[in-house]
Amino acid sequence: MNATPKAMDSAKTRRFQQKREMILDAAATLINRHGVRGMTFVDVAQLVDLNTTSITYYFKRKELLAAAVLERSLERIEALIEEAGRGRTPQERIERYIRLTFDLQASINSDDERPIAVLSDIRALNEPYNSDLTARYVQVFRKLRTFFDAPRNEDEKVLGTIRAHVLVQNMFWLPAWITQYSAGDYPRVCGRMIELFETGFAPKGAAWTPKLLPIDESSLKVGIEGMPGNFARAATFLINERGYRGASVEQIASELNVTKGSFYHHLEAKDELVLECFRRAYGRVSLVQRAATKAGGNQWQQVCSSIATLLNVQLYSEFPLLRTTALQALPTELRDDVIERSNRMARRFAGMMIDGITEGSIKAIDPLIASQALMGALNSAYDLRNWIQRVPPEKAFAFYGSTLAYGLFADPPRPYLG
Fold this sequence. Notes:
Layout: H1 5-34, H2 41-48, H3 52-58, H4 62-84, H5 90-109, H6 129-145, H7 154-177, H8 186-199, H9 229-242, H10 249-256, H11 260-266, H12 270-295, H13 299-315, H14 332-359, H15 367-380, H16 393-405
């Protein structure tokens, strides 16, 4: 019996959707490796065993493909948040959200689930895709914020936004470090992460009394010979705002009021400048950690002062740290160097926490997991830079620092800045 026209159309539609999903999967993989600007039709075609012309049958332009990949990623994250949101209490909703995220990451790592593209590259898209997807992300974020009890005043509204931001950004940061563990360890790591977000690492009765630490950047062993220091500052701001590919050499030169030729007089390529920005960023984190040790006090005090100082750098200083969202666009050999530097900073925080657990000034938690959560929270604080200017610094530090120090459900500490 011959197939009916309706059955033939259905089969054709099914094949079209299957091929389209394959293309989206390949593009998501490439975006995670090279960023939106580094993803090409040629590379996508090679991954799905098609020619470039066939790709254009599904997506006329690369920008349309990138936008579709990011839209699909947002839809999947939203579905996960909606499922977690069925919990009866804030604690239950957040625990379910973290467990579902770990389960999804495990399935992606074992190729049982389609990859999710890194959402930070939304900022590298042109209009109207940038604005449309940003608005879509805000909509998803607001759903996550409803995990918490409805705010009764402005302070609770600010605190709820900060807590939701730290939580979601840590879930986005998860793929950067979870590969250090085997799949069999995921349930334990997940449980320790839930514990950290529920009760923090502060021992009972610990007071939030941080001090802003002095940072002597003259001791930094970084810098490209002959390159003015303001190159790194301008590049950091542009990359943080627009992503690696979105911050072109022309834009960096324009921000510095120099010619493109002047830029290449000091640097052979933009990758060299980005690597310098990362080295400066992690060098400054290291300076803060050392300054905390020099300032003395117990490990709890040293960690709190490090958090407040780095939050001040991210939220209020003229030279913030470079967001790790630029990582995916770096060549592999440079990316590995940057990740190792990040892990080194995390291990130093872990060491401070281990010493604190030994002396009794920090609660017994998994310090390796807590240190990665802390790095993720401090790194992503830049995203709130413009929004939080209406909040006094001492209150911003107390609210933001409390998310991991005291957990997501304790009353925030009184603002303090020694």
